[in-house]
Amino acid sequence: MPEGESTRVLIAGGGPVGLSLAIELGLRGIDCVLAEKGDGILRVPKMSSVSSRGMEFCRRWGIADKVRDAVWSRDQPTDFVYTSTMVGEELARLKLGSYADREGKLDYSPEGAASCAQIYFDPILAEKAKSVPGVTARYGTRLESFDQDDAGVRARLMDAGTGEESVIAADYLVGCDGAGSVVRRCLDIAMDGLGTIATSVNVFFRSWELAKINNKGWAHIYRFFDDDGCWSELIAIDGKELWRLSVFDDPEPDLTGETYLRKLGGRDFSFEILDVSPWERRDFVARSYRRGRVLLAGDAAHEMSPTAGAGMHTGICEAVNLAWKLQALIEGWGGPQLLDSYEAECRPVAQQYVELSTRMYNAISALPDARGFGEMVAVDGDVPRSLTPPGQRKAQIVYEDSPICVPDGTPPPEGPALLAPSARPGTRAPHCWVDDGRSTLDLFGGGFVLVRFASIDADVEPLRAAARQRGVPLEIADVACEEARALFEKPLVLARPDGHVAWRGDALPADSLSLIDHVRGA
Q1: Which of 159, 273, 333, 488 is the most buried (most CB within 10 A)?
Q2: C-alpha distances in angstroms, 263 versus 93, 216, 245?
Q3: Could you count the other beta carbons within 10 Å of the beta carbon of residue 327?
Q4: How far is Cα 85 from Cα 20, in angstroms, rounded to an integer?
Q5: Nearest to 269 by CA among 279, 278, 280, 258
């Protein structure tokens, strides 16, 4: 068995979370090997949209336009339509507009959510990962087992084609290997939650004719009603001919998929079924995100109903959260508590999104029949916003009670998922256009950044000196924008490498070294 190979970080799993982690590590100068048991080719669309926060990361990685333009026209509506069938009465429409309508106009992000199914998104991520120095992607390579000690991890890999085994040594191992995670199983980490909440069915099919019989105009998502309520959701994958139907709950599924398509159509139409997949809609969170030098991220750490569009959103945020912390530890400027902060920050967020996803699924599956829904909309005057995935709205990740952020005494806004722009410590720093197409978020993504607003003349040299003493990368960003100053609320705001606020104040604390030690996990 060949031995002797080593890397800084071994990533098990080459889905969007593993690829995001590889990109982020590589751009930070950290060598990594990504081992994916499959060939990297997706044959059915899994997720259908990239959240606004995910697109902010894509913006930083230089691939946002490629993702946004992968298949969906910038002029095509991304609405939600509620209807009985594709030729039946339109009961309601939640108008979200097109990319062109929203471009540069959102008050909470420089990048809105994008309609880009995983069959298109993963290859874009993979292409980017392969272009980053220090990233090695190995497809057809399965993680078999591993052991670890205080110095690192030793993993056994197998070539799925030849059966040849090899051993690789790494400083850290991250399991991004999905719901059936080998890494989680080897760590013997249990899952908490409600378990399976429904038996669902996905039908992936091709039909030009469905677009022609659709008399409602284009939308991204169509939800259908029968006598029992809302029974399914149809997603336009490419805005042309590819579609994915999700039947919410059918304990005895039609494995041909044909009865579902005839039902949603409301009349005969031609179609080609590409895949029919029964699956379990789940509610789970891992009890722990870490054992020693081995960590979990993405579906390996949590399973949630896709109804809220939050699974990949949560996982990619975890990857970016973890990448800078691994960089800090490998480069020697991260403190001993830094890795503990990963679980402390990310697990509560995952728990919130799992609960939100289940709650949204239950709300949709509890909707009345078409007539009842129409009456409900008439009374309310609109579709309840609670039925819209947060990825399409102001989805926010907040690390409350983070051990490496310094609270400033301000209370959290109400609601876990949809928050107004805020610079409270633990929150993703707010977006504001500061000059010529540049967002405040474009300031972040390297090391720590101290945002200093031009309205004050603060001496920041003590913080710069403290960072230099500890080897912490720190930049000073002077911003002359009153709108941004109002959003950030304080004249000095320290942002972490992932763009979350670590500290803010009217002046630097008396002991800048203690502040640097706090935010670096020491």
Answers
A1: 488
A2: 20, 17, 11
A3: 22
A4: 38
A5: 258
* Domains detected in the chain: 5-70+110-192+285-362 (3.50.50.60), 396-522 (3.40.30.120)
For the chain, helix, strand, coil in percent to 5 are 30, 30, 40
Residue 105: how many other CB atoms lie within 10 Å: 8
What token pair was written down for 210?
């469905």
pTM of the entire predicted model:
0.96
CA 219 to CA 236: how far, in whole Å? 7
Calculate helix-pair angle for 118-131, 16-27, nearest 10 degrees: 20
Region of residue 517 (left: phi > 0; alpha: psi -120 to 50; beta: else): alpha
Q: Which amino acid is at 419?
A: L
Kindly give the confidence (pLDDT) of every residue in the chain, 522 residues in length, as a single tens digit, with 9 standing for 90 and above.
345 699 999 999 999 999 999 999 999 999 999 999 999 999 999 888 999 999 999 999 999 999 999 999 889 888 999 999 999 989 999 888 888 888 778 888 999 889 999 999 999 999 999 999 999 999 999 999 999 999 999 999 999 989 999 999 999 999 999 999 999 999 999 999 999 999 999 999 999 999 999 888 889 999 999 999 999 999 999 999 999 999 999 999 999 999 999 999 999 999 999 999 999 999 999 999 999 999 999 999 999 999 888 999 999 999 999 999 999 999 999 999 999 999 999 999 999 999 999 999 999 999 999 999 988 888 877 777 677 776 555 567 899 999 999 999 998 776 544 556 889 999 999 999 998 779 999 999 999 999 999 766 778 999 999 999 999 999 999 999 999 999 999 999 999 999 999 999 999 999 999 999 999 999
Cβ(81)–Cβ(223) under 8 Å?
yes
Tokens of 252: 């005895």
- Residue 36 contacts residue 137 (beta carbons within 8 Å): yes
Q: In terms of residues, how long is the chain?
A: 522
Instruction: Give the separation between CA 52 and CA 114, rounded to whole angstroms.
Output: 7
Question: Element (H or E) spanning 320, and its range?
Answer: helix 311-331
Dist. CA 277–CA 135, nearest whole Å: 33
Furthest CA-CA distance within the chain: 74
Structure tokens at 368: 């009345």
Burial class (CB in 10 A: 0-12, 13-18, 19+), 239: middle
DSSP at 490: S
Nearest 5°: the CA angle 401, 406, 409 is 75
Tell me the two tokens of residue 43: 């044959």
Q: How far apart are CA 137 and CA 78, in angstroms?
A: 34
Residue 476, φ and ψ in degrees, nearest 5: -105, 125
Q: Are 493 and 429 in contact, with CB atoms under 8 Å apart?
A: yes
Contact 302, 215 (CB under 8 A): no
